[in-house]
Design goal:
Cotranslationally removes the N-terminal methionine from nascent proteins. The N-terminal methionine is often cleaved when the second residue in the primary sequence is small and uncharged (Met-Ala-, Cys, Gly, Pro, Ser, Thr, or Val). Its EC number is 3.4.11.18. It is an enzyme of class 3 (hydrolase). It catalyses: Release of N-terminal amino acids, preferentially methionine, from peptides and arylamides. With about 350 residues, the chain is of the alpha+beta class. It has a domain of about 230 residues: Creatinase/methionine aminopeptidase superfamily (Creatine Amidinohydrolase). The strands form 4 sheets. Strands 1, 2, 4 and 5 form a 4-stranded antiparallel β-sheet that branches. It has a 3-stranded antiparallel β-sheet with strand order 3-9-8, with no helix packed on it. A 3-stranded antiparallel β-sheet has the order 6-7-10, with helices on one face. Helix 5 packs antiparallel against helix 6 and helix 7 runs antiparallel to helix 8.
C-alpha cells in the first residue's frame, strides 16, 4: 500500500491524520466504508466497520484464490466473499463484457429486455403440435445446436476458462446464423451455461480455469428461424476419479432409458419412475426428471448463489446432467439433437 494514504482515525498508532480514502482492496470486492492507512489498517487496528481479523482475511483472500481449485486471472476475485458456499467452487469475476450478436441474425423477443413474452403467454396452454414445415425447422435448429455443443466439447481441457468456452459457443452459433438462446434470457449474462463439479445447472461462465479432475456440463441452446434447439452433456476434464465416472455413466443411462419410453400417450410420471431407480441403484439422487440432473449420494436438494442463477448441491457432492431435444412421432420418438 502507498505510504501517502492517510488513516481516518485520530487515534491511529502510526500518527496519521484523518482521511476518507477507502481501502481499494475491499472496495474491489464490494465492501464499502473500510478505511485504511499507509501502514495497513489491520495492523493499525482501524478498519472502519470491519474487525481487524476480518479485514486481514479479506486481504489474504484477495491476494490468492481460496485454494488451487479456484484459479483465474491475476485480477480475478470472488464477488460474494461473505456467502456460505456448500462446496469448493467459487465464482471468479469480473465477467467479460456481453457478447454481440450481429443485427442480420434474427433475435428472439427477449433479446432486448430479457423478458420471454411468448413463454409467458404459453403458460398453462396445451402443447402445440408441429406441422411438417415446423418439424423441419426444429430439425435444423437442433442439428446446429448439436454441432455447437460438439465444438465446445472438443475444447474442454485443464486450463481453459469457462468464459473461453462461452466465447467458443457464441462464435460457433453466430457462424451458423443462429442466436445463442441463453443470452439475456431473463437477463442471463452469457451465451451458454457451464456447470462445474457441485454446480447442478445454470452456471455462469467466468474466469475460473478448469482443473484436472473436474467435470463440466455444457448446456447449449440455439435460436434459428424461429425455433430453439437445446442439448447438453457432462464432460471429464482430463482424468477423473471413479466416482465421477460412475456419476456421468449413470446420468446418461437415466436419459437413454427414459427416451425409450417416449411415444404418444406416454405419461411424464412414468419417465420419472424410470429415472429414479437407476439413480438409486448407483448411489445417486435425482434433482429433476425429463432432463435428468443426478447428484452423487442421496441428497437431491439444491441451493442458489447470490447471482440468482447458479444452483449447487447442498452437500458439495458432484452433479451431472444430459439433455436432448425430442420429437414425439406417431409411432415413437426422434432424437433431434442426437450426436454422430
Amino acid at each position: 500500500m502507498s505510504t501517502t494514504i492517510l488513516c481516518q482515525s485520530t487515534a491511529c498508532p502510526n500518527g496519521n491524520p484523518p482521511s476518507r480514502l477507502e481501502c481499494p482492496t475491499c472496495s474491489k470486492l464490494g465492501i464499502r466504508g473500510s478505511f485504511f492507512c499507509g501502514q495497513e489498517c489491520f495492523k493499525a487496528e482501524w478498519v472502519g466497520p470491519l474487525s481487524v481479523k476480518t479485514h486481514k482475511i479479506v486481504h489474504d483472500l484477495a491476494k490468492k484464490p481460496l485454494s488451487t481449485v479456484n484459479v483465474g486471472g491475476k485480477d480475478s476475485y470472488n464477488p460474494f466473499p461473505n456467502y456460505s458456499y456448500t462446496g469448493s467452487i467459487r465464482p471468479m469475476y469480473p465477467l467479460s463484457a456481453r457478447r454481440k450478436v450481429p443485427d442480420h441474425i434474427p433475435h428472439p423477443e427477449y433479446a432486448a429486455d430479457g423478458y420471454p413474452k411468448a413463454e409467458a403467454r404459453a403458460t398453462g396452454q396445451a402443447p402445440r403440435i408441429l406441422n411438417k414445415e415446423e418439424q423441419e425447422k426444429m430439425r435444423t435448429a437442433c442439428r446446429l445446436t448439436r454441432e455447437v455443443l460438439d465444438i465446445a466439447a472438443s475444447h474442454v481441457r485443464p486450463g481453459i476458462t469457462t468464459d473461453e468456452l462461452d466465447e467458443i459457443v457464441h462464435n460457433a452459433t453466430i457462424e451458423r446464423n443462429g442466436y445463442p438462446s441463453p443470452l439475456n434470457y431473463r437477463n442471463f449474462p452469457k451465451s451458454v451455461c457451464t456447470s462445474v463439479n457441485e454446480v447442478i445447472c445454470h452456471g455462469i461462465p467466468d474466469q475460473r480455469k478448469l482443473q484436472e479432475g473436474d467435470i463440466v456440463n455444457i448446456d447449449v441452446s440455439l435460436y434459428y428461424d424461429g425455433y430453439h434447439g437445446d442439448v447438453n452433456a457432462t464432460y471429464a476434464v482430463g482424468q477423473i476419479d471413479e466416482e465421477s465416472q460412475k456419476l456421468i455413466r449413470t446420468t446418461r443411462e437415466c436419459l437413454d432409458e427414459s427416451i425409450k419410453l417416449c411415444k404418444p400417450g406416454a405419461l411424464f410420471r412414468d419417465i420419472g419412475k424410470t429415472i429414479e431407480p437407476i439413480a438409486r441403484a448407483n448411489g445417486c439422487s435425482t434433482v429433476f426428471t425429463i432432463e435428468p440432473m443426478i447428484n452423487l449420494g442421496h441428497n437431491w436438494g439444491e441451493v442458489h448463489w447470490p447471482d440468482n442463477w447458479t444452483a449447487t448441491t447442498v452437500d458439495s457432492k458432484r452433479s451431472a446432467q444430459f439433455e436432448e431435444t425430442l420429437l414425439i412421432t406417431e409411432d415413437g420418438v426422434e432424437v433431434l439433437t442426437a450426436g454422430k
